[in-house]
Amino acid sequence: MQGDVFILNTQFECSMNLSVNRSDASDDKLMWQRFIAGDVDAFDYLMSSQFRVLFYYGSKFSKDKEFVKDCIQDLFLALWERRDNLSVDIAVKPYLMASLRRLMHRKYEVKARLAEDELDGQEGNFEIEFSVEQDYIEQESTLVLTQKLKKLLDELPLRQKEVVYLKFYQELDRNQISEIMEVSPQTVSNLLQIAIKHLKKHWRTEFITFFLIHLFI
């Protein structure tokens, strides 16, 4: 019975989160259109409303918080300067996340060249880390389970970790994730399927869903 209530509560929380996200996405799209038209207030709104998402996402790639903040600032300045050439009809959050990812990678390449370091493959030396959200680990048993899942996630290859993060924390669909990661939608599905298959070997499916939604910060 407890397990059923646990799963029902999880499903309810998921549906509530989806409703809020749809509303936020609608507001963002309106503000984006106003921003492109030159509305400074709309530009300020987008910066403040998207900063936290972008900062957390950028922090998955770099531990240098000031570097991440500088990249976000540079991104918005660049968007303002070329707003006349931007599309009106976009999904704002995925677009900004994809733009930040590319910008950080370019800056990383420049820093590496200046330091005469070699890049280790396409993803460079970026590292995605997952943290436990304290609100969901008050009970010792929950803490143990959460730490176990975190350990499993840390064992995943970088791209699998990123696709899990974008899917379950940012609640993006595979087309949006493919835009951010610059891979095909089918590749996104394959990466997610492989990652979930790895997790299912060690954990029950219903617990995986719950903790993936609530694990990240």
Give the percentage of residues in beta strands: under 5%
Query: Could you state the order of secondary-structure elements as H and E?
Result: HHHHHHHHH
Count of runs of 4 or more consecutive helical residues: 9
Helix content: over 70%
Task: Provide a descriptive summary of the structure in words.
Helices cover 72% and strands 0% of the residues. It contains 9 helices and no strands. Mean pLDDT is 77; it is low at 1-20 and 117-126. It is mainly alpha-helical and 217 residues long.
Describe the SSE topology.
Blueprint: H1 2-36, H2 40-59, H3 65-81, H4 92-114, H5 140-154, H6 158-169, H7 174-181, H8 185-200, H9 205-214
Helix pairs in contact: 1-2, 2-3, 2-4, 3-4, 4-7, 6-8, 6-9, 7-8
In short:
The protein is mainly alpha-helical and 217 residues long. The protein has 9 helices and no strands.
Highlighted features:
single chain, 217 residues, Rna Polymerase Sigma Factor, Chain: A, Arc Repressor Mutant, subunit A, 72% helix, globular
